[in-house]
Design brief:
By secondary structure, the protein is an all-alpha fold. The chain has one domain: Na+/H+ antiporter like fold (Up-down Bundle), CATH 1.20.1530.20. Helix content is 82%, strand content 0%. Helix 8 (155-191) crosses helix 12. The longest helix is centred in the middle third of the chain and has 37 residues, at 155-191. It is globular, with a radius of gyration of 18 Å. It starts with a helix and ends with a helix.
Amino acid sequence: MLLILLKASIAALIFAIGMTATTEDIVYLWRRPALLLKSIIAMYIVMPAVAVLMAWTLDLPPRTELALVVLAICAGAPLLPKKLIKFGGDPSYVFSLIVTTSLLAIVTVPASLHFLAEIISFDTSAVTPSQVARIILKTFLLPLGVGMLFRLAVPALADRFGDPLLKIASAVMALCALTALAVGFRLIFEVGLPSLTAFAAFTLSAIVVGHLLGGPNRISLAIACASRHIGLALLIAANARGQHALALVVAYLLASAVVSIPYVRWITKHRPPA
């Protein structure tokens, strides 16, 4: 029941976000190739390289090494638009970034897994482009597209109900997420301090990379680099490590929050007034 509520609230949230997006927002990055290239380099080249370097150089459990690499290639968290706009990100950049990374993931995730199979040592045949595409379609592109079509069809209703739906869905999602975290908190103790430290270090590296390469969009790219598509990561990790997948994901979410929240507070406090 909790999982159904969580999925429904996420879908409603992205639907509500879609009611505020336009096609101009979607193609924003495509018309700025330099910014697009920096964003892709940060999320799809630098962060996987950081994860592989950590897996090679740190004395970590094999399951944690796997989790780091898997999380690194699963960029494009579906809830990024809400999170980044709340923190003052440019809506056009945010929408375009998440749509672009979601589309790229259909190709890059299976390709990266195939390329990294020798490093992380597990069978990648069960993770196909069609599986990745289905997850991205169900969790992000479909509710976003329906929301955009709804706005085109009945803009007055979209303006009237968009914000209330966003608030209700956000509240339900937050309640479900907190409940799930409380239930799964014991799983964190299965992971261990070295793994939690590695996840925190990876998140810090992601924030630094995004901050340095993001320019005027540094806060958006920093948080985007630190955020992962948990649905994709769970699919891959569960295929490789079964019962440990959920524990690793819960541990990453906790470590990521501990590192990201101080950064967001610091940069919003020191951001010059508009």
